[in-house]
Write the C-alpha cells for this entry.
Amino acid sequence: MITLSEISLSSLIESVSIIAGLLIYLLVTRIAKHRRRPSVAFAWVLSIIAFPYVGIPLFLLFGTRKFTRPAHRPAQLANSFLDPGAPSWATNLLEVMNIAPPTRNAAVRLHKNGDESWRALTGLIGAAQKELDVCVFILGGDETGRQITDQLVARAENGVTVRLLIDAFGSMNTPREQIRRLEAAGAQVRRFMPILHNPTRGRANLRNHRKLVLADRLHLWSGGRNFADEYFFSRPDRPAWVDLSFMIDGPVAMQARGQFERDWRFASGRGEAPATPAFDDLASAGDILAQWIPSGPDHADDTIYNLLLTAAYQAQTRILAVTPYFVPNETLLEAWCMAARRGVEITLVVPQSSNHVLPDLARGRALRTMAEAGANVLLHPGMVHAKMVVIDKVLGLCGSVNLDGRSLFLNYEAMTAFYGPAEIEWLAQWHRTLAQESAAYRPHEPSWLRDIAEGAVRVIGFEL
C-alpha cells in the first residue's frame, strides 16, 4: 500500500524537477539571449511542466538553436559598402547582421536543368589544380554519388587537396566504401554534427544543408542540388527533380570559402576560423554584383528570414518564389499576404506533391491564406526542389533555403543574392517557364480532422 508520505515525497520530487527544468530553460534562453516566438516558448514550458522527465532532456538535446550572441548594433549605418547596383534596404540590413558585402564578379552561369548543372559541376572538379572544398547535405550511393566520388578520388590522387564535408544525418546512407576510397586517396572527409556526439558541440537536430563546391578558391558551384541521381538525371520511371544551381567566378567564391572553413573547423572540433576577408581585401573581378548570404545557428540573426521579411514590405511590383516546402511562420506569411493585398504580384510555385508527406500536410493553411490574399499559388506536376526568390527587378536569391521553419530557423544554410539585371531577369524567366507548366491552386476548406492535423504537424514537425 502506498502511504501518504510516499505520495508527498513523489510530488515533492516532481515539483523540484519542474522548477529545475524551468530554471534550466530560463538560464539557457536568457543567458544566451535566444529569441523565440511565443508559441515555441509556450510549447517548451508546457512540455517541461507536464512531462518534466521527458521535456527537460528533450530541451537540452534540441532546445538550443543559436551558438552566436547578437553583436552590438551601430547607432547609425556607415553605408561603407553602398553600391548603386544594389538596393540599399537589402545591403544596409545585411551589413548590420554582419554579412560580408556584395562584390563585383567576373562571370555567373545559372543552370536551367540537371544536364547543365552536371556538366558545370564535373567540369569544375576536373579542372581544379590545387584545392577542392566540397560541402553537401546528401552524397548518394547511386551512380551520381559514385561518379562524383570517382572524380574526387582522381583529383586527390593527382595531388589536389580535397576536403569533403557531408552532413551526418543527410548522408547517413552513404556507403562506407565510398568514404574509404576517398580517404585512401588522400582526401579529407568530415561528417557534420554526428547523431551521437558531445552535446556541447551542437544539437543533433541542427543540420548543415549548404551545398557548394570550391575550386582553387576562386570558382564556386552552388545552389539546391545534392549529389544523387534525382537532382541531375531523368530515369524511365522517374523524371529528374526541378532544381537550380549556378557557377560564379570571383570574390563571392572567397566569401563562400570563408564559410566552408568555419564549417570545416566546427566539424573538426577546432574552433573558429579566420573571418571572411574584408571588402577592401577582395579585389573586384568584374561587373556582376553578387553576395554570399549564410544563415543558421552560427549567425546571431536569422539572416535570410529577416531579408525575406524586409523584402515583403519593400517590394513594389512583384515577389516571385519557388520552394519545395512552404511552411513559413505567421509573421512572414502575414507580411507576404499584406504585400499581395496592397497590389504586389506574388507568384508562388510549389510541387503538387513533394518528396515528404509532412510538409505537404503542414503547408495547407499557408497556401489557403496566400490564395485568399490574392497571391498566385501554382502547383507543379513534378518534384520541385529549387529554392528561388525574386524581388521586383532589384534582387534575386538562389541557394539552399526552403521556405519553412527548419530552413529559416534551424539549418545551416546559404543563399546567393544577385543584384544585376541580367541575372534577375534570367531567374524571372526561369520562374515564368515553371509557372506555365503548373496548375492554379484551388483552396478548399479542410475538414476539422485535417485542420487539427495541419496545426499539429506545424507545431511538432517544424518548431523543434
User: Anything to note?
Assistant: The CA atoms of residues 62 and 203 lie 6 Å apart. Residues 4-62 form one domain. DSSP finds 15 helices and 18 strands in the chain. Confidence is low (pLDDT under 50) at residues 75-79, 273-283.
